[in-house]
Design a protein that fits this description.
Layout lengths: L2 H17 L2 H6 L1 E9 L5 E2 L1 H14 E14 L2 E12 L5 E13 L2 E9 L1 H8 L12
């Protein structure tokens, strides 16, 4: 892949999260991709990551990757950003600074290492064990 194709993949990946398009996001991963987060040190696959992201999409609305700083290198990319949104449980604003380092091969992400500002992760997880509020009218 050339630099422009890698840049387009990175942009599509983050745009999918903003739009709540989990299928589109998972399609950016190679089937055997490894996803690692500094907060737990565990490696998960695309389907495990699907569940985590689906929970995020249900619990955090108005998602925006602000202050995107994307740098492409041969075989991958690095992006720094602040994920901003609102919790559905209380309308509270959340912000999570992060840096992702991704390896790319054959048009898909093969490895994603995500470094969160762990001091702010709890804002996103505050109501994770509670049922979602009933939004039916």
């Amino acid at each position: 892949m050339n630099s422009e194709e890698i840049r387009e993949l990175a942009t599509r990946f983050f745009d999918c999260v903003e739009a709540g398009d989990i299928d589109g996001l998972v399609a950016c991963y190679a089937p055997d991709a490894e996803i690692w987060h500094n907060t737990d040190g565990l490696v998960q696959g695309p389907e495990d990551n699907r569940g985590v992201l689906a929970g995020l999409v249900k619990r955090i609305v108005d998602r925006v990757y602000a202050d995107r700083r994307l740098e492409v290198f041969p075989g991958g990319f690095v992006q720094q950003h602040v994920l901003r949104g609102k919790r559905v449980h209380d309308g509270g604003d959340v912000a999570l600074a992060a840096c992702l380092v991704c390896q790319v091969k054959d048009g898909r992400i093969t490895r994603l290492d995500e470094y969160f500002d762990s001091a702010h992760v709890e804002q996103f997880r505050k109501f994770v064990s509670e049922p979602l509020p009933d939004t039916a009218s």
